[in-house]
Amino acid sequence: MLNSVHDLGVSGGKKIHFRAHVKTHKTAQGTFKQLGFNLPASKITSNSILISTIREAHGLLDYQESIGKEYIKDICYSLPGCVLPILEQLSILTRRVENVRIFVDNVEHLDNLVRFGKPASRQRWSVFIKVDMGTQRAGLTTDSVEFSELLQKTQSPEVLEVVQVYGFYAHAGHSYASGSMEDAHKYLLDEIKAVNDAAQLLGKHAPSLDISKLVLSVGATPTSNSLRLAEEPVLTNFIKTNLKGILEIHCGNYCVYDLQQLSTGCIRDHEISGFVLATIVSSYKTRNEILADTGVMSLTREVSRFPGYGVCVKLEDILYKEPFSHYWYVARISQEHGILKPYGNSNSGVGDVKIGSKMAVLPQHACIAMGQFPYYFVVDSQGIVTDLWTPYQKW
Ligand SMILES: Cc1ncc(COP(=O)(O)O)c(C=O)c1O
C-alpha cells in the first residue's frame, strides 16, 4: 500500500501522504509495519495513524515509548466525538504525541470545542471536517445546508481562537459493495472529488485561507486497493491539474484482508493473511456435517457474498497454495460452535477430516473477528510461530 501511494505521487507529480488505520489488529507490531518501519521493500514510511478507540492510542504510545521509538507522531481519532467526556480524553492525548487530529461534522461540535477551550497541549484543536460522500454514516454531504453552516462557523473569531481546520476527510464505506478493482476506483475518484469540492467551498467562506495547505484524506480498503490498477490516467490527471490540497490516503483492513474484501474482486484469496484456527471436535456421517469450536464468539455474524460465517481451507494451503481450495464453510453458528458443510461442489466428506485436527477459517470481516481474540500468533512462510502480538482492545 505504501508503494502504491508512493507511485501515485510520482505519476501525479505531488507528494501524497499515507495514514494507517490500526482498528483491524490494534497492535504496535502491526502498526509499525503499516507505517513501513523495518520493511525493506517499502519505498516510504509514514508517522500518521487513525484510531477507533483512545485506548489504541495509549497502548501504541506506551509500546513505542518502551522501545525508545517515535514512529507514531500523528494520531487521528476516527469518530466525530466532540462531546465533553471524549474531548477530555483527547485533550490528555495531545500531551503525549506531536499531533492529534479530531473529526467535526456538526456545528455543535464547534460550540463544544469553544466551550472546552484549547486542549492540554495549548495548541489549537486540529480538525478534519468529515464529508459524507455516499456512505451515510458519519459526515455531511458537501451540498447540504448544514455543511455550509459548519464551514462558515469554522471562520468565526471565537472558533478560530481554538480550532484550526486541518483538512477534509472522506471514507467510502459503501465501496465494500464493489465487484471489481474498476468499481472500487470509481469510488476512489468520488472520494477525492468530494474532499476537493469541500476544500474549494471552504475557500469561498475564507478567501484569505491558503487551501493548498489543507489535507484531503480519502480511502477505504477497496478504494485504496484500486491504486494498484496500472495505467490510471483519470486519477493522475486529476491530481496534476485539479487537486486543490494535499492528498492523503488512509485505510486499515488491507493489512489483513478477509472474505468481505475478497468479495470486492480487488484481492485474491491467498492475500488474506489472518485466519481463525479451528479445532474439529466432532463429525456426523449421515448429514455430512462437522462440528468445530468456531462459533459467533470467534467468527461473529458478519457476512459477504461468500456463504456462511467463514470459509475453511487446509492449513498447508495458507502457507503454500495459490489459490486456496475451499473445502468446507461454516454454515451455522451458535455461541461457541460452528457447523461446517461442504463448500460448493467440493465433494468434501466427513471421512476425510480427522476429529481433533485443525483447519484455517477465513473470516468474513477481520476487523470484527480479530476483536474476539486476546492475542494473535504470527507465523512465517514455513508455518512456524515466530511472534505473538497482543492487541489494545476494548475501551
Ligand atoms: C472513518 C474510517 N476511516 C477509515 C476506515 C478504514 O477503512 P478500511 O478498513 O476499509 O480500510 C474506516 C473503517 O471502518 C473508518 O470507519
From TrEMBL:
SUPFAM superfamilies documented for this protein: PLP-binding barrel
Gene Ontology MF term list: D-serine ammonia-lyase activity; metal ion binding
D-serine dehydratase-like domain mapped to chain residues: 273-380
Keyword Transcription in annotation: no
Gene name per UniProt: DSD1
Cofactor: pyridoxal 5'-phosphate; Zn(2+)
InterPro entries: Ala_racemase_N (IPR001608), D-amino_acid_metab_enzyme (IPR051466), D-ser_dehydrat-like_dom (IPR026956), D-ser_dehydrat-like_sf (IPR042208), PLP-binding_barrel (IPR029066)
Lineage: Eukaryota, Fungi, Dikarya, Ascomycota, Saccharomycotina
Chain's role: Catalyzes the conversion of D-serine to pyruvate and ammonia. May play a role in D-serine detoxification.
Keyword Magnesium: no
Chain segments annotated as coiled-coil in the UniProt record: none
Organism the protein comes from: Zygosaccharomyces mellis
Pfam family, one: D-ser_dehydrat
Swiss-Prot/TrEMBL catalytic activity: D-serine = pyruvate + NH4(+)
Protein name: D-serine dehydratase
